[in-house]
Amino acid sequence: MATVDDRQTQGTALTAYFREGEERARNLDNRGPIRLTEQGKLAPEILDSYKEHGFYILENVFDDAELAEIRAEFEGIVDHLPTSPTSSIDKHGRPALGLGLPQSPFHWSKPLGDPFGGANGMARAPVKMIEGRPAAEQPREVVFIIRGPLQLSDAALRAYAHPGLLAVTEAINGEDFVPFSEGYVVKQPGAGAAFAWHQDGMTHWDHPEWDPQIHGFNFMIQLYGSTAANGVWFVPGSHRRGKLDIHDLVTTAGGNLLPDAVPFVCNPGDVAISNRQILHGSFANTSGDLRVSLNFGFHRRSAIIGFQGKGQQGNIIYDADLVRKRSELIGYAIDARRQHFPVEKPFVYQPYAQSAELFHWNDAARADISAYYMRDLNI
To answer: Hey, what CATH topology would domain 7-375 get?
Structure first.
């Protein structure tokens, strides 16, 4: 949904909006490095700021060496993608990545489009975002989401077990936290898709024990940095307001440029954490800057067990056995990281510490997690 028909005017309005949004973002007290107490717990002021605003920028989480490993394996994945949604080969003529999986891990979009927004899109994204006009040399469709990255990249699996990030997870969701879902979000320069304004939470809006944290949260590791033009925008505090009438908000604003929204502006190696109830979206990436986020999220166990979710296998009840199986990725990731970074103190995931269950990352484990994303825990 464009706010105006004239593209030159629209571009000028967006440029001003980006500049003003960055200024609003700088005035928030929600960024800094991960800081832990002497007891290894998250500094309370970080948690308080996250709970107030609904997002926080964790700075310098990944050093240059680890970031280079994550990037290299991501670039290997991109080099091996199918050439189109119906293709079985990559650009080199090799069998493409993802063949044989029960459901394709790739989401496609027309360049600078918004595949999820609008009446024919996703119900929780009711108003299409501004779409761009791609250059003639762009392909008909580009990949903008890659699901299941923990089975595609050992570096991504190790990043999933970063002890600082898991300490943040424990502080928000409790010691018995469980996974949600993972994926790369790819915003190619001049082609990256928009994502209409939406809230991620789907099932618990009328839950008798609803609170602002009940739908969990996402981490977004920035492989190349993030700007107002290619990054995600948030409406601070909106996670505390329940389920919003997004159509009304956009109509009141006169278009997609919501007046209170701010972008997350990050350097490579920074990690944005966002509440899944916060109102957020992103614009088509008409800039020359690539953004790639490695996303993964977590839930409170109490919000999952016994509830009907909206997973890849349809509307199913998340019982203890399914949640236990999906949570094995935490154990495998911690061991993969321990092997690769033997000097680093690993995170201790309390459910496994209490059960004395051990996980070993090896070829058998790699086979065990094939198509693990089919057990994602979506609420």
So the answer is: Jelly Rolls (2.60.120)
